[in-house]
């Protein structure tokens, strides 16, 4: 049985030896046919994937350039807006400082006026006390007669002036 296996193996090897060349030739013909059909299809349709890829690449570059320009414009707009905001903030800070200065000046004026009012109030209180003490130290009965005499003199002098003016 070993002989049969060896004999069949030898025949199989000779059979395989002739078939690989035919198999390789058939594979080569299929590959060449496929390449030829692809070339004919490209020639017939007029398009090639390389041209499509380059066109798509150009479109992508154009879109990227456009997007880049838009970003640059938006960035410039943001810069201008930011600068305007900074300028407005600076103006508001200046105005705030002016308001603070004015408020401090008004507070100083208020304090000064309050001190003046306090000193005037104290002076009035002092005058009232001195007037009250002066009235209490004078005798009560002669004061009205004294005042009446002064009033009578003042009235007489007014009357004499008035008659003198009308005559002249």
What order do the helices and strands come in, and which of them pair?
Layout: H1 2-45, H2 49-137, H3 142-167
Summarize the structure.
By secondary structure, the protein is mainly alpha-helical. It has helices at about 1-45, 50-135, 140-165.
Description of the molecule:
The chain has helices at 2-45, 49-137, 142-167. With 168 residues, it is mainly alpha-helical. 0% of the residues are buried. The protein has three helices and no strands.
Largest sheet descriptor: none
Number of strands: 0
Mean pLDDT: 80
Derived from helix and strand composition plus strand pairing, the structural class reads mainly alpha
Give the N-terminus to C-terminus distance in angstroms. Answer: 185 Å
The shape is: rod-shaped
- Please give the share of residues in helix: over 70%
- Runs in which pLDDT lies below 50 for 5 or more consecutive residues are none
User: How many whole angstroms does the radius of gyration measure?
Assistant: 62 Å
- Give the percentage of residues in beta strands: under 5%
Order of helices and strands: HHH
Number of helices: 3
Features:
168 residues, mainly alpha, 3 helices
């Amino acid at each position: 049985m070993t002989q049969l296996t060896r004999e069949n193996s030898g025949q199989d090897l000779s059979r395989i030896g002739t078939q690989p060349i035919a198999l390789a030739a058939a594979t080569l013909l299929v590959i060449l046919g496929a390449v030829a059909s692809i070339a004919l299809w490209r020639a017939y349709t007029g398009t090639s994937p390389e041209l499509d890829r380059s066109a798509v690449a150009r479109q992508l570059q154009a879109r990227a350039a456009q997007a880049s320009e838009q970003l640059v414009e938006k960035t410039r707009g943001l810069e201008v807006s930011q600068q305007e905001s900074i300028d407005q903030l600076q103006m508001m800070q200046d105005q705030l400082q002016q308001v603070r200065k004015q408020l401090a000046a008004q507070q100083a004026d208020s304090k000064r006026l309050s001190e003046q009012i306090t000193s005037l109030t104290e002076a009035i209180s002092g005058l009232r006390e001195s007037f009250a003490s002066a009235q209490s130290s004078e005798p009560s009965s002669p004061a009205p007669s004294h005042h009446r005499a002064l009033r009578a003199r003042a009235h007489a002098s007014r009357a004499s002036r008035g008659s003198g003016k009308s005559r002249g």
